[in-house]
Amino acid sequence: MTLLPPTYDIARSYEENLSAGPVYAGAIPPAPASRKTWSFLGFELSSPIGVPAGPLLNAAYVDLYAQLGWDVPVYKTVRSVARASHPVPNCLFISTDTLSEADAHSVRAVAPAPQSVAGLTITNSFGMPSMAPDDWQADIRRASEALRPGQLLVVSVVGTPGADGRGLEDDFAHTAALAKAAGARVIEANFSCPNVASAEGELFRDARTSASIVRKIKQRIGDTPLIIKIGALPEEHLAAVVEACLPFLDGVAAINTVPLSIVDAEGNQALPGTGRLKSGVCGAAISEVATEMTARLLRIRDRLNAKFAVVSVGGVMSERDIDGRLAMGADLVMSATAAMWDPLLAHRWKDSHG
Ligand SMILES: Cc1cc2nc3c(=O)[nH]c(=O)nc-3n(C[C@H](O)[C@H](O)[C@H](O)COP(=O)(O)O)c2cc1C
Fold it and tell me: Is residue 253 part of a domain?
């Protein structure tokens, strides 16, 4: 198996991909006939498979992936103010040796393109760019209209400290309210982005701030379900964060990318520009870290006798990986990196699980 071109052209800028993408020359296979449905946060879904925040830049991407059977598309993280992307390159291949949590913040070198999706690990670095709210709200309305019965649109939001004079917490809540007004059925608050140098990058480590933000968001979005997206944490630390947020929370999605220092063959910073030595790693290499985080969230949910949904993200590269996360007890399974290079993955899984 050779690697096909991804739906996001990694040689081109974010803006070019936004206006010209997605890249897909294949056919749209007919949806497999299945009568089975999956329940998630009160919605009835055709499958428990989604694309997490990132690869779906706008309604055109959401439309393509919905047609290809990814039933829970997450609209890439938006802000309350327009923000440009980091310059190209934004995605580089790196070696696929499995990472452990202890490897976070260590150094890894870029590598040649792998031969197959199984060996696919990349770093991605965009800095959470965003269209202006009027533009993304109109686009989210188009994305909602592209979905079929049994599909669910989640919108990922992040707060921008100082935007229009709002503090981080108020801006998170404001942005979530804008996303809800545009038609988001579920809001995901991104508490973890290794590719920004500012405060919003590692919020999930701080139980008090996280709880205070989810409380403010919930005050604004009412009964619209709220998910937080987080990175890897040791079990007791994770339990403290979940417990603090629990009164306002409907689900936890984990993990976001794992931050590493990315260097070229000479050992120099691989991505150009200040603050870009550290960059988020995703794909096959983070599978173990992600699987362990899913196990921790499920244990914590049991221990607290709580009801929040667990969304397993990270290193899901194959049908087998989807089965594995579901067998653990995850409510939803999502793939970003594999979904970009293997957009038919969800269809194949559904075809063999009818
Ligand atoms: C191209 C790309 C862009 C991403 N952008 C975002 C983002 O805007 N917000 C977010 O919460 N996560 C973002 N992520 C992280 C993914 O949602 C996911 O957590 C991570 O890639 C791990 O999953 P994977 O191993 O299947 O890629 C992005 C990932 C990729 C590959």
Answer: yes
